[in-house]
Write a structure and sequence with these properties.
The chain is an all-alpha fold and 205 residues long. It contains 10 helices and no strands.
């Protein structure tokens, strides 16, 4: 690849990573709409589990569509010049955690999720969750600072989800093979997601 093309790619990556500081307003609006559509489909995807569960637990079941909804709200607040850094941090950590979690679980149980009859659906789900993680980059890069309360709420929420998922068993319907290792991985991922977003803040502030 020529130096010119390399520089062009570098600039495009930089522009995406700093999307909310750019003038790409149409792209921001597009991402808001796409994530709202993904949220609606995600809630639909969980319909059987939701119908079999106490409605009070529903917000703890639909982790991934919740994360895409949080992005849509955070992006709208930035777009409308009402940015809330604590909320953006909360959304970013959820996006990183549940995007990576979904991709990892699909790969771990690939014999089930990528069986011929499910291959297209879960290939699409894998790709959309990859983009969920990518979208967290420009969102967290828009954050100037986060208060102690915002940090505490984010970590408490992620850990509460872990407790309910693997003690109350609100985790998504997945094969139960080695579920205890999945639980350990999920808790570790909570801290990885939390500190990966917080680390970016520490570098700037």
């Amino acid at each position: 690849m020529s130096p010119y093309k390399l520089e062009k790619v570098r600039l495009e990556i930089y522009e995406f990573a700093n999307l909310f500081q750019s003038r790409h307003q149409n792209l921001i609006k597009f991402l808001i709409l796409v994530n709202l559509a993904g949220t609606i489909y995600g809630w639909y995807y969980y319909k059987f589990q939701l119908m079999a569960s106490n409605p009070l637990l529903w917000p703890l079941i639909t982790d991934c569509p919740n994360a895409s909804f949080l992005f849509a709200v955070a992006a709208y607040l930035i777009y409308s010049r009402r940015k809330k850094d604590d909320f953006s941090f909360f959304a970013s950590a959820n996006m990183v955690k549940y995007g990576i979690w979904t991709m990892a679980i699909l790969i771990y149980h690939r014999d089930y999720f990528f069986a011929p009859e499910r291959y297209l659906l879960y290939s699409a789900i894998f790709v959309t969750h990859f983009f969920l993680v990518l979208e967290a980059i420009p969102l967290k890069n828009s954050i100037s600072s986060v208060g102690e309360k915002g940090l505490a709420i984010t970590l408490a929420w992620l850990l509460a989800n872990d407790f309910f998922d693997y003690v109350v068993e609100t985790h998504p319907y997945i094969p139960e093979r080695n579920i205890e290792y999945v639980a350990i991985f999920t808790v570790l991922l909570t801290f990885i997601a939390f500190f990966s977003v917080k680390f970016r803040l520490n570098k700037e502030n």
